[in-house]
Write a structure and sequence with these properties.
- The active site is at residues 86, 196, 198.
- Part of the FGAM synthase complex composed of 1 PurL, 1 PurQ and 2 PurS subunits.
- GO terms for molecular function: ATP binding; glutaminase activity; phosphoribosylformylglycinamidine synthase activity.
- This is Phosphoribosylformylglycinamidine synthase subunit PurQ.
- It is a single chain.
- This protein has one domain: Rossmann fold (3-Layer(aba) Sandwich).
- The strands form two sheets. The chain has a nine-stranded mixed sheet, with helices on both faces. Strands 5-8 form a two-stranded antiparallel sheet.
- The protein has five helices and eleven strands.
- Helix 1 packs across helix 5 (211-218).
- By secondary structure, the protein is an alpha/beta fold.
Length: 223
C-alpha cells in the first residue's frame, strides 16, 4: 500500500515517520509540501509530529489553514486513511477533522518519556494487529497534549467507539480527560494520537509495540 507524509515548517518528526513507513511497508512514502493542493493516490496520509510554525497562536492552528489541508480533507472524505501524530493530532483537531481539543499539559511542563497505552478499540483500520484491552508501550514528547471535550462530545465518542487508545496503568502524562490518548472520526478513517508509535518499531528502539499500528494501516503483517 502507498503512503504519503505531509511536511510543514517546524515539523521535526517527518524523517522518523518516513523511516518507519519505509521499513514496515518496504516502500518509501511520497512527501507532500504544505503549499501543494493535491496528493497522489495513496492509501495512508500521515501528518507527523513537531512544532509546526513554532506552535504560535495555538499548536497546529496555522498549519491547519495551509493549502494541503483541503486536499487531505478531500482524500479523507473519499475514505483514504489519515493519521496525525502529536502535532499532527493537534493539526487535525484545529482543522475540524476530529472532535475535541488539546490543551496545555496539566503539569504546565513539557513531558518526554515512555507511557503505556490500552488498545480500547481493536476493530479499526489502525489497530487490527492488536487485541482489545492489550497494553502497549509508546514514547511521548509534548507540551500541549491534554485532551478535552465537552460532556456531550465526550459521551458521543466514548459511545461510538471513537476512543482508540487510552493511557494505562497510571501513566497519563498530561491530564487528558478519561485518559484519552487517541481518537478517530465517526467514519473510522482518521486517527489522531499524542504518543509516537513510529519511535518504537524495532529492536534499536528498545521494542516494537508501535509497529502494529503501521502494519494495520498499511495492510502488512506485523513482525
Amino acid at each position: 500500500m502507498k503512503s504519503a507524509v505531509v511536511q510543514l515548517p517546524g515539523l521535526n518528526r517527518d524523517r522518523d515517520m518516513i523511516a518507519a513507513l519505509t521499513k514496515i511497508s518496504g516502500h518509501a512514502p511520497v512527501t507532500v509540501w504544505q503549499t501543494e493542493t493535491d496528493i497522489p493516490d495513496v492509501d495512508l496520509i500521515v501528518i507527523p509530529g513537531g512544532f509546526s510554525y513554532g506552535d504560535y497562536l495555538r499548536c497546529g492552528a496555522i498549519a491547519a489553514r495551509m493549502p494541503i489541508m483541503q486536499a487531505i480533507k478531500d482524500k479523507a472524505d473519499k475514505g483514504v486513511k489519515v493519521l496525525g501524530v502529536c502535532n499532527g493530532f493537534q493539526i487535525l483537531l484545529e482543522a475540524g477533522m476530529l472532535p475535541g481539543a488539546l490543551m496545555r499539559n496539566a503539569s504546565l511542563k513539557f513531558v518526554c518519556r515512555e507511557v503505556k497505552l490500552e488498545v480500547v478499540n481493536a476493530d479499526t483500520e489502525f489497530t487490527g494487529a492488536y487485541a482489545k484491552g492489550q497494553i502497549i508501550r509508546s514514547p511521548v514528547a509534548h507540551h500541549d497534549g491534554n485532551y478535552f471535550a465537552d460532556p456531550e462530545t465526550l459521551a458521543a465518542i466514548e459511545g461510538n467507539g471513537q476512543v482508540v487508545f487510552r493511557y494505562a496503568e497510571g501513566t497519563n502524562p498530561n491530564g487528558s480527560v478519561n485518559d484519552i490518548a487517541g481518537v478517530m472520526n465517526a467514519k473510522g478513517n482518521v486517527l489522531g494520537m499524542m504518543p509516537h508509535p513510529e519511535n518504537l518499531i524495532e529492536a534499536a528502539h528498545g521494542g516494537n509495540d508501535g509497529r502494529g499500528l503501521f502494519a494495520s494501516a498499511l495492510g502488512v503483517i506485523a513482525a
